[in-house]
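Ops channel
N.P.: pipeline sanity check, posting one input/output pair.
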């Protein structure tokens, strides 16, 4: 049986605990706040899944400091991620650490410390950009390999979603200032919190052989409101080392949400969309000669995490297994976040060194 420790009893911790229990894992959920553990037992978990799973151990972190786990999942605020991961590797290193996205606050020095420690401790670190592992992404990858759409000309992606849904899932928060979400420099705001768009852009660019992002020109709408300081809109123009020019847009104001990607080719295009309706994701491939493939993939909210948990199981069994969630991919996304902040605040194009 796989032994998992989840740090953070918020919304994401509950989602991943449920996914792990579905696969028969032993789950311990830790939080420094006793009220967060109470909410998990009495509110979040039973509201979502019918009743609390009594097999889940709820405790303070210091109660399990000497226990050994196969995997540690870090679902706390981004500016605590690296410190917690380093502490886990220094104490009782697990086989795998999964860090929820974004990897950390916009700080590449923290990324370097984490990468060096993971290599020294021989611990596999993954970053939870789970859209890379959903069923409709798998289907899009398959179609892209099997059906040519000509020379690739541009790639566009967006995660535009009002963050009211986040606060609805965390009703104990009065607003952005109560959490890291209201602070860009802590890993909140549209640029970091909704960085699924940057990451999925990078994933499809890699799959299509279009290279890595090396130039960023960004414009952010940064606001200060009721004690919070965050970007509510992030618009990025990017170029890869192989010359592809594309766009990425993220915001926390759009209703209804749109989470979308389109890879354009001279002979057609591939479209990928999350939640085309409340129960389906969408993949569409259109060739200009008239051939069209389209599939709506049925899904529920727990499905967004089932592929991630199944993948963790595979990596725990074989730590050398290639992973689309590898730490290096999370760092590449963080490089774009840092470059976008610099670009917008300085009003100039920023180049990303390898």
């Amino acid at each position: 049986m796989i032994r998992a420790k989840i740090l953070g009893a918020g919304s994401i911790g509950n989602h991943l605990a449920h996914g792990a229990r579905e696969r028969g894992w032993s789950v311990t959920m830790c939080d420094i706040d006793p009220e967060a553990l109470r909410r998990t037992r009495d509110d979040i978990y039973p509201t979502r899944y019918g009743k609390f799973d009594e097999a889940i151990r709820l405790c303070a972190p210091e109660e399990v400091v000497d226990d050994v786990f196969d995997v540690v999942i870090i679902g706390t605020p981004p500016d605590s991620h690296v410190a917690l991961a380093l502490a886990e590797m220094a104490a009782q290193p697990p086989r795998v650490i999964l860090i929820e996205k974004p990897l950390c606050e916009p700080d590449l020095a923290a990324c370097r410390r984490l990468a060096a420690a993971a290599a020294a401790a021989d611990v596999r670190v993954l970053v939870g950009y789970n859209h890379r592992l959903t069923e409709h992404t798998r289907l899009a990858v398959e179609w892209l390999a099997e059906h040519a759409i000509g020379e690739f000309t541009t790639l566009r992606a967006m995660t535009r979603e009002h963050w009211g849904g986040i606060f609805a899932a965390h009703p104990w928060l009065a607003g952005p200032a109560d959490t890291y979400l209201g602070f860009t420099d802590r890993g909140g705001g549209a640029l970091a919190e909704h960085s699924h768009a940057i990451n999925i852009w990078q994933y499809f660019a890699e799959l299509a052989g279009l290279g890595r992002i090396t130039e960023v020109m960004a414009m952010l709408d940064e606001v200060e409101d009721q004690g919070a300081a965050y970007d509510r809109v992030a618009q990025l123009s990017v170029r890869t080392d192989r010359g592809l020019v594309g766009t990425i847009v993220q915001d926390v104001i759009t209703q209804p949400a749109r989470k979308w990607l389109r890879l354009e080719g001279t002979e057609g295009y591939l479209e990928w969309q999350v939640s085309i309706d409340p129960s389906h994701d969408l993949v569409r491939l259109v060739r200009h000669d008239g051939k069209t493939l389209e599939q709506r993939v049925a899904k529920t909210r727990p499905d967004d995490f089932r592929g991630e948990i199944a993948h963790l199981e595979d990596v725990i069994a074989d730590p050398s297994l290639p992973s689309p969630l590898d730490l290096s991919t999370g760092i590449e996304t963080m490089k774009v976040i840092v470059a976008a902040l610099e670009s917008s605040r300085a009003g100039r194009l920023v180049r990303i060194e390898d």
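N.P.: looks fine end to end. The chain has ten helices and 15 strands.
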